[in-house]
Design a protein that fits this description.
This protein is about 40% helix and about 20% strand. It is α/β, with parallel strands linked by helices. The two termini are about 30 Å apart. Bound molecules: uridine-diphosphate-N-acetylgalactosamine. Uridine-diphosphate-N-acetylgalactosamine (UD2) binds near residues 79, 170 and 272.
Length: about 300
Amino acid sequence: PTGRTILITGGAGFIGSHLADALVADNDVRVLDNLTSGERANVPDDATLIEGDLRDDATLERATDGVDLIFHKAALVSVQGSVEAPQTSHEINVDATLEVLEAAREEDARVVLASSAAIYGHPERVPIREGDAKTPSSPYGLDKLSIDHYARQYHDLYGLETVALRYFNAYGPGQTAGDYSGVISIFCEQALRDEPITVHGDGEQTRDFVFVDDIVQANLEAATTDRVGTAYNVGTGTSVTVRDLAETIADVTDSGSEIAHTEGRTGDIRHSEADITTARTALGYEPTVSLRDGLERTVAWL
Ligand code: UD2
């Protein structure tokens, strides 16, 4: 997109800030973020940061006034946190999204939302297709399923242009440890410190790791596609075992770390891999960053 007035909610966070970077040169970009997990320093200089909460009507109104495109990335992303506090997850991940969708109706703005592979729960088969069974195994997954459906309904009922992107395991520079972090940031930090790399269980579980630049690409395509009112898997279409991941990270970091098998994680999903045929066909999405390249770029940032 070019010459557009764009709001990125969660634009100081991991994915949102990469998206802001990609859009600022050619668009008028606003970022709405309450900075609980996002960081001011992530917001590009040429974007306007509105520091505040989505759930505050006046703030949301100011942030959405005159926009023609909204990337809704603000969320509580901790699966564990959602298990501990399902109501809080619902308030932030569902209720606040409804506020964003309503604001988008006011402005007749397109909305690109962050959905998640978590909506599939324990998949019946891999690769996972968009139409496959959805039995989320956490409040977080249920909340994402809910907004994924709302996005489609707002299109069907009100003609709003919406696209939901179901991210698989996202990683890359800017994904910080904090109290929530993906396996790649954990393993990289362990490897760089020459500490044991903690593989849960037998390490034969698989994941589809998608580099943040490819996620940004999918978002940019979602912003201009005419195939709206639907949801797309955003992964790479390939997967690796957690054990292979640990070995690759040890290699990329030139680490002397041992691989230590720890107890399997309760409720851990065994296999996850996206079928990205629909995104390829409808959006022209094509992931370009191999796991090794992506890991090298992530390690270089750390
Ligand atoms: C990812 C998402 C989550 C949700 C879910 C849906 C991330 C960070 N999380 O959870 O938001 O969308 O997918 O299915 O993208 N592991 C280890 N050692 C460690 C940490 C993790 O072996 O120290 C394993 C873990 O047991 C799992 C794999 O690595 O098998 C990936 O774990 P994760 O927490 O990065 O992501 P996942 O797939 O559970």
